[in-house]
Specification:
Helix content: 40-55%
Number of domains: 1
Number of helices: 7
Shape: globular
Distance between the termini: 43 Å
Strand order of the largest sheet: 3-2-1-4-5-6-9
Number of strands: 9
Strand content: 15-25%
Length: 232
């Protein structure tokens, strides 16, 4: 039976690219997102896939979705938390409730996924949990006050989980995307930017595939990807 990969935040960019990459690599793919129509379209495109419309901040609904994945596809061997909550504005401008919700998406959902999915990985002696992050996890710029604190917390949580589960045979990694992802809305925001300015979702997916399949003697935790012209 094919292995199972579970991916949250399956939108039109990185999430969909991840679903396609893991499917092409022989995985049954479980796709979690809020947009049921998009998931239906991806189900029709991607063989042996299952789309479940869930808000990852609803822990009971997320738990039920994972149970359905286990029943219909199998126990996930790879879990990728790609769902993201963000808002722009400095600390005076943001609504405190927005920061709280972003924390629920970025941090608490990762915690719930880890608690729910990694025990089976530990029992099997193999598995992988990956969080897709970004530069905000390492620095707090003024207009990212509603976002950066949650991504920093996500990275530290992932590191704590990695230190716990690594010796038990489960690979945990944080993939930091230092770039603007090539999407219709990001292109609209930067209509004069050259193609080389953007990072391609398929290229992100390829690197995450690589991280998920690293040999046990050379596991990475902090992984950084950026376009060749990115200033850093």
């Amino acid at each position: 039976m094919s292995k199972v990969a579970l991916i949250t935040g399956v939108g039109p960019g990185t999430g969909a690219a991840l679903a396609r990459r893991f499917s092409s690599g022989g995985f049954r793919v479980a796709m979690i997102a809020r947009d049921a129509d998009r998931l239906s379209m991806l189900e029709a495109e991607i063989p042996a896939s299952l789309g479940i419309a869930v808000d990852v901040t609803d822990s009971e609904a997320l738990d039920a979705a994972i149970a359905r994945v286990e029943r219909d596809l199998g126990v996930p061997e790879i879990v990728i938390h790609n769902a993201v909550g963000g808002v722009f504005g400095n600390f005076q401008q943001i609504e405190p409730e927005a920061l709280e919700r972003n924390f629920q998406v970025n941090v608490m959902a990762l915690l719930h996924l880890a608690r729910r999915c990694t025990p089976a990985m530990v029992e099997a002696g193999r598995g992988c949990l990956i969080a897709s992050g970004n530069t905000s996890a390492f620095r707090g710029k003024p207009n990212f006050a509603g976002f950066a604190p949650t991504k920093a917390a996500q990275r530290i949580l992932a590191e704590a989980i990695a230190r716990e589960l690594g010796p038990k045979g489960v690979h945990v990694a944080f993939v930091m995307i230092d770039a603007v992802i090539d999407l219709a809305w990001t292109r609209a925001l930067r209509p004069d930017a050259p193609d080389a300015y953007f990072i391609q979702p398929a290229d992100i997916a390829e690197e995450i595939w690589h991280v998920a399949h690293q040999p046990r003697s050379a596991w990475s935790f902090n992984v950084e990807v950026r376009p060749f012209g990115e200033v850093w």
